[in-house]
Amino acid sequence: MLEGLPLTDSHGTIKESVDPATGSLVFPIYQTSAYRMPDGEKFRYSREANPTVSELGRIISVLEGAEMTSPFSSGMGAITTTLLNVLRPGNTLAVTRDCFARTFRFATDFLARFGVKVIVSSPGTENLLAASRSSDAIFVESISNPVLRVYDIERLSAEKLESCKLIVDSTLATPICQKPLKLGADIVIHSLSKFISGHNDIIGGSASGCTELISDIDNLRRTLGASMDPNTAFLTIRGIKTLEIRMDRINSNALKLARTLENDRRFHNVRYPGLTSHPDHAVAKRLLHGFGGVITFDLPNMRGEPARMFRSLRKIEAANTLGGVNTTISHPATMSHRSLSSGERKDVGFSEYTFRLSVGLEDPEEIFEDLEKLTVP
Length: 377
Prior knowledge:
Layout: H1 51-64, E1 68-72, H2 75-86, E2 92-96, H3 101-110, E3 117-121, H4 125-131, E4 137-141, H5 153-159, E5 165-169, H6 174-177, E6 187-191, E7 205-209, H7 211-224, H8 230-240, H9 243-262, E8 268-271, H10 281-287, E9 294-298, H11 306-310, E10 317-318, E11 328-330, H12 342-348, E12 354-358, H13 364-371
Parallel strand pairs: 2-3, 2-4, 4-5, 5-6, 10-11
Antiparallel strand pairs: 1-7, 6-7, 8-9, 9-12, 11-12
Helix pairs in contact: 1-8, 2-7, 9-13
């Protein structure tokens, strides 16, 4: 954080810091690798710390109600560095089967080789609680990707061992819909590439929490080198300026579209936390302030191969990402979760017929009209 700079205005709105050197209303990009010594007591080398990146960390800390935030070069950089810092050989990590495939592979393939016992939980809060009774750390997505289970962070925090660290990836919820630290989480992680930056133009991540925990994680980040560059930090700060208004529109659009899809028999197994049919709807109503922008559904009668089907779309773009202002669609079995076998996909709760929709700012009726092109008449 940049010392002496205000966090919020009198209404609690996040303020971007005015550049202390020039008075610029837009915090500048400090495009430098190093700083003159001995002036550089705080900033010495930009792999370690950079003013633009530090400003982004300050803003995310305000959003999450955290003491400190460490930005990273990617969401996976934040996840891997955090887990490597928190865990030791002989420790036990509880992770859910329905988390992002790369996260799951890092835990079960990489950490397990270094003496960390990894307990894999079936989807759902009750299953995770049963699997994590003696864990040293729990890693969970507040809204899981791609099956959209909503985890009860309050219960996990209340019922875990006191020494156990609860790490929550809140990428799909964003700080607008949920603040996991206020619900008892120890560390909250984001892929900033998604809703927080919101324009599909950066790759970045963050880890937030108390100063004691995040300082250690940040020191390891400096050693491993998963450092964010100042241009990425600048673009993410710019995206955050519209985060609340974007999420309000996206939440509204997604709920309308999910209800439309659920009432159309061509779309099967529509999953969205805002629907009363969702298995975690009660938890979502209690813990979320808006149900997010991601919907999944099945198309058992889909028109051929997904890649060919996507060519018929006119407004929706097929892409291996989510969280932008424009609506995107993906086929998890061949895209984001392609590393999972058919049996593993079944354990998670989706199939080769499942599609993931990231709702943007467009008119939901126009999005639905485009989705109809994927179905058999």
